[in-house]
Each structure stands twice: as C-alpha cells, then as structure tokens.
Amino acid sequence: MQRLILPLPGNEGFAKRLAALCQGELGAVETRQFPDGESYVRLHGDPRGRAVDIVCTLARPDPRFLSLVYAADTARELGATQVNLIAPYLAYMRQDKRFQEGESISSLSFARLVSSTFDRLLTVDPHLHRHPTLSALYTIPTTTLHAAPRLASWIAANVQSPLIIGPDEESEQWAGSIAERIGAPHVVLRKTRQGDRQVDIQVPDLSAWQDRTPVLVDDIASSGRTLVVAAGKLAGMRPPQCVVVHALFAEDAWSQVSDCFERVVSTDAVPHPSNRIELAPLLANALLRDLRD
Ligand code: R5P
Q1: What is 4-145's CATH topology?
Q2: Burial 187-220 (b: 16+ CB within 10 A, else e)
Q3: 191 belongs to the catalytic site
Q4: Among the atoms of ligand 1, which is closest to the Cα of residue 253?
Q5: Which CATH number fits domain 148-276: 3.90.550.10, 3.30.110.170, 3.40.50.2020, 3.40.50.150?
Q6: pLDDT tens across 4-22, in order?
Q7: Is 217 touching ligand 1 by the criterion CB < 6 Å?
C-alpha cells in the first residue's frame, strides 16, 4: 500500500520531493493556534492501514513540537500501521551532558519524548559527540543517514582544487570522508568554545596549500561563530567557501557568515536561501530499503 507522507507546515517542499521519489501519497497537516494559544491540528490524508511518514525538520523545535506529537497521535488513532518521524535535522543533540550542576540533559529528555511518540526516526547527520549512536539516547529504531557523499559531489562539481577544512576535531568525520571521496587534501582545525557565541580556533601552518581553495565543511551553522572565526584565520589563502549540512543560522548569523565567504551552501535539511544540496534522495532510499510494508 502507498505510504502517506505528511509534512508539518514549512516542510512541504522536502516532503513533495520525498513523495515523488518513493511513490508515496502526499498529504498535509493543517495547524493553527486557538485564541488562547493552544494548538489545533488536522490531518489531510487517510492513514488507515498504512505507514505514515511525518516530515518535520527540527530546527527551532519548541514552537512546533506539540503539533508534531498531536499529528503523530492522530495518525495512529486513525489507523496508521506505523508512524515514522522523518527529521532531516534532529534537534537537542548538543546538550548531551550536564556541563554545570543542575543543567537539563535535554538530548535525553527530547529522545524520550520522540521515542514515546513515533515508531521509528530517520535523520541526517545528528550531532553525535559524546554518544556514539542514536541508540544510546533513543529507544525506538533509528536510521542515521550521512550527507557527506552529497557534499563531496557538490564540491567536486563546483570547486576547483579544493582544500577541505574541518573547523574542529568533531568535524574530522565529515572533512575526512569528503576529502577521501574527491581525492582532495584535508586539514582539521582546533576549536575551544568559551560560550554560545565565543570560540577560539587554532590553525596549523597552511602555507603548503596556498594554491588551493579552502572549503570549510561543518555539520551545523548555528550562531555562525565557528565559521566566522575559522574564516578569519585563513588570511593569505584564496577566498574561502563553505558547505554545511544544517543551516540553522540563528539571529544575524547568516549575514555574518555570508560576508566572510565567497560562497556558502547548505543541504535542504533546514530550509534556507543557501540550500543547494538536496537530501530527499537519501531519505527516499532509506524508506524504500528499510521500511517497506
Ligand atoms: C560543534 O561542535 C558543531 O560541529 C558546530 O561546529 C557548531 O555547532 C557550530 O556552532 P556555531 O555556529 O554556533 O559556532
């Protein structure tokens, strides 16, 4: 039976591309606020007897999370055989430890809420740092997809003679994999974070790579400080470019980052004017491979 693909508002474009690639039926989720601020949710599409994939990227998750839960519960109540969450960007992965006494480990609480609502989670490049896999947090089956091959293809097709640069040790996984795929050199910088918007970055001697175009690659651009500070340390090199997976670009981050680079591109995991790399084919393959009825 054809799967029903239901985008939360703001995810229609991604869901449409996904539905076309996996021959799913595209439905809709209507949401609005009641006058008292509570959320109203209505599904358009019949979930009865079939798998339902709710598409909702989780950038800025707090205002839409309850609607997402209500949509999933409604799909189940109306007879869906399974209710999956397709979240190209998965939120609350960075507060994975009590850094200071009394802090919430929100990645654990968020995982508990999602695990109690959905049957399965599919996502792309979740920020796994202190936890090696999503199964350390989530009790439902999860599928973790990687954008690196698509980033690598974009760089190979669009940047001549690149030097792939990861701005911190955590980015080795993306930088190394992209560089290997396209046969380019890569270096990884060292970052120390002092606060949400304060980072310091140490850069090794890059003089051997002055004839190459520096391409910074990272999983997330949030405050943008990582990218801005890293770009500032590349004096003497060709104008840098930047490719990120999750274009959160909080507050004025986009104007700051775009001023520092010749070009900034991102995947469509989070809708943003910098989106150039489509991820629907990755998710569609995973759905067709893993979640056949
Ligand atoms: C950090 O560990 C991540 O890989 C990113 O470098 C980080 O989340 C970027 O954050 P911001 O844009 O706020 O510097």
Answers
A1: Rossmann fold (3.40.50)
A2: bbbebeeeeeeebebebeebeebeebbbbbbbbb
A3: yes
A4: 12
A5: 3.40.50.2020
A6: 999 999 999 999 999 999 9
A7: no
